[in-house]
């Protein structure tokens, strides 16, 4: 599937400069509406190293009220996190009603880096697909808007960006031995990505593949995708109405 992605898609600088502030203004409006209607959102960024996740997140947030969202950067579990089930640390960042959480990498590390690097057993990462689907179903059942983005670039473009970072003293901190090691396992990671998209793209929590070879196009597509998901979420019942419906259903079951 990934080999069929058209990575030639691009956007001109004038078009980008016209679209970006327009989309950011609409995001500001949607954030206010989500807060008013108490609808939370979870926005997941995954992708290849150097695919532009950080740049896309920076274009997503400048017009947002900082009191209404959090960015959760995810790295290897440390200390207390490593002593719990891997989803425990993500539950702690699930947003309250009306708020957004943007995950810079996520629980999908279980079926990506932990799978490929052998940090968990095969039964553990195979079981994780079911656990992740249940986790996301619970979010969606509460009324959470779930957006999942995979930023895709070619292996050649990744190498170009790696070399650019290594040569720039202001960007050198972004690259280390782990990035080069992961790159050598590209085929294994690609298979893992194919599997996760096929097995965890479901109604209410579908994956969007973002063609990220050209950064302007990728950033605009990210903003449009988030806006479309928020619009769909705002059309449905609020979390409070969903909870009342669930409570009535449970009451009927208890009486039966």
The portion of residues forming beta strands comes to: 5-15%
Low-confidence stretches: none
The strand count comes to 5
Structural class category = alpha/beta
Can you describe what's shown?
The protein is α/β, with parallel strands linked by helices and 256 residues long. The protein has helices at 13-37, 53-60, 88-91, 113-116, 122-141, 155-167, 177-184, 186-200, 215-235, 239-255, and strands spanning 41-47, 69-73, 100-104, 145-152, 207-211. It has one domain (2-255): Rossmann fold, CATH 3.40.50.300. Strands 2-3-1-4-5 form a 5-stranded parallel β-sheet, sandwiched between helices. Helix 2 crosses helix 9 (215-235). The model has no long low-confidence stretch (mean pLDDT 93).
What labels would you give this structure?
256 residues; alpha/beta; Rossmann fold; 5-stranded parallel beta sheet; 10 helices; 5 strands; globular
What does this entry show, briefly?
It contains ten helices and five strands; from the N terminus they run αβαβαβααβαααβαα.
Chain-wise SSE layout:
Blueprint: H1 13-37, E1 41-47, H2 53-60, E2 69-73, H3 88-91, E3 100-104, H4 113-116, H5 122-141, E4 145-152, H6 155-167, H7 177-184, H8 186-200, E5 207-211, H9 215-235, H10 239-255
């Amino acid at each position: 599937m990934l080999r069929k992605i058209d990575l030639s898609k691009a956007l001109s600088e004038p078009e980008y400069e016209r679209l970006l502030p327009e989309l950011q203004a609409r995001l500001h409006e949607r954030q206010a509406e989500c807060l008013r209607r108490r609808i939370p959102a979870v926005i997941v960024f995954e992708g290849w190293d150097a695919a532009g996740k950080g740049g896309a997140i920076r274009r997503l947030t400048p017009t947002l009220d900082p009191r209404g969202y959090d960015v959760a950067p995810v790295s290897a579990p440390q200390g207390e996190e490593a002593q719990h089930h891997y989803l425990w640390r993500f539950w702690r960042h699930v947003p309250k009603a009306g708020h957004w959480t943007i995950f810079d990498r996520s629980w999908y590390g279980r079926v990506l880096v932990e799978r490929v690097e052998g940090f968990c057993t095969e039964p553990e990462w195979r079981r994780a697909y079911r656990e992740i689907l249940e986790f996301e179903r619970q979010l969606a059942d509460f009324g959470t808007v779930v957006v999942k983005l995979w930023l895709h670039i070619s292996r050649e473009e990744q190498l170009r960006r790696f070399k650019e970072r290594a040569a720039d003293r202001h960007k050198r901190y972004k690259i280390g031995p782990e990035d080069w090691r992961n790159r050598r396992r590209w085929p294994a990671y690609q298979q893992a990505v194919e599997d996760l998209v096929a097995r965890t793209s479901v109604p209410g929590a579908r994956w969007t593949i973002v063609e990220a070879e050209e950064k302007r196009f990728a950033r605009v597509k990210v903003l449009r995708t988030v806006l479309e998901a928020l619009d769909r979420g705002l059309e449905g019942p609020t979390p409070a109405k969903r909870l009342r419906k669930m409570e009535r259903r449970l009451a009927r079951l208890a009486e039966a």
